[in-house]
Amino acid sequence: MAASSTEAAGPKEPNHGLRIFAIWLPLAVAADLVIWLAWGQHLPPGQLTDTAKSQQFDLLVLFVLAAPVMIFVLTFFAYSLIVWRHREGDDEDGPAIHGHTRIQATWITGTAVIVLFLAGFGTYELAAPGMAGAGAGEGPSAIWTPRGGQPLQIQVIGQQWRFTYRYPQFGGFETTALYMPVNQPVQFNVTSLDVIHSFWAYQLGVKADANPGVNNIAFTTAKHTGQFIVRCNELCGLWHGAMVNNGQVVSMAAFQAWATKTEAQLAPITAQLPAYSTVYDPTVVPQINKAMAKAGIAGANGYYYPPNDPVQP
Ligand SMILES: [Cu+2]
């Protein structure tokens, strides 16, 4: 601070610390109340699923902690500009400050408390049962699985440049439409046919990388019906930005009706698909194998190259 209370010359220096605190405190309390009571339920990614809700809560906690810090910085900035600005005829520097134990101790204690709390809170949110840290697209063997019966299995298959979905509990049909029932745990098995994609169902609070040869598992349970958007979230080539589609959370009855109807409709196509498996190996897709054999391409690295592909190895 420019003027220390220990070397006051002339009129007594006011207690700047106390004044800044008195301005900061009501602003910080007001901001936190507005965030907690009014803004909280509007934070992304919304409340469509249990996972989305849990992410929204984590964001809310971060906002509530961050707002007082930001308001302190702005208050201090504004106070300095107004109170300590250069005045006509005053060309003296303020007294030099060499250490201030109370400010240093307050600063270290404040930042340490905030950072340690966040480390503890973050660890709890990741590790506690039912929290997002296990079975949220971290890999093939989730250490936590949802309670309350068998989850509905939905395989998400990324490929350039579209997502398709397989429903193994309904004969393994594959479709471009993503339907899921409300109040029913869903297990997404995310994989890819070619390059790395990422299945990002924004309103579901689900984001899982789609790696070829890997079954990446993410759980969620929808809390109400509604539409959600799916985007690819990993740059995957020319039409990455167009890799978008909508999904629907519908009632259990509507889902059952849709799934059984689609299963029957697609039965002739399903018969041509390879048997359901948690990962797709393009080299075992019979049609591609045939095409490879016909073109005399070894396909040793697992990719199919058309006969006159210039980048053919
Ligand atoms: Cu992609």
Outline the secondary-structure elements.
Blueprint: H1 16-39, H2 50-83, H3 101-127, E1 152-159, E2 162-167, E3 173-175, E4 178-181, E5 185-192, E6 197-201, E7 206-210, E8 216-221, E9 226-232, E10 244-250, H4 252-265, H5 267-270, H6 286-295
Parallel strand pairs: 1-5, 4-10
Antiparallel strand pairs: 1-2, 2-3, 5-8, 6-7, 6-9, 9-10
The structure holds copper (II) ion.
Uncertain residue ranges:
1-8, 298-302, 309-313
Distance between the termini: 67 Å
Structural class: alpha+beta
Q: What bound compounds does this protein have?
A: copper (II) ion
Largest beta sheet: strand ordering: 3-2-1-5-8
SS field, number of helical segments: 6
Residues in helices, as a percent range: 25-40%
Beta-sheet strand percentage?
15-25%
Radius of gyration: 29 Å
What's the average pLDDT? 85
User: Largest beta sheet, briefly?
Assistant: 5 strands, mixed
Structure, explained:
The protein has six helices and ten strands, in the order H-H-H-E-E-E-E-E-E-E-E-E-E-H-H-H. With 313 residues, it is an alpha+beta fold. Strands 3-2-1-5-8 form a five-stranded mixed β-sheet. A five-stranded mixed β-sheet has the order 4-10-9-6-7, covered by helices on one side. A hairpin with a 5-residue loop joins strand 2 (162-167) and strand 3 (173-175). The chain is elongated. Mean pLDDT is 85; it is low at 1-8, 298-302 and 309-313. Bound molecules: copper (II) ion (CU). Copper (II) ion is lined by residues 158, 161, 197, 232, 234, 236, 240, 243.
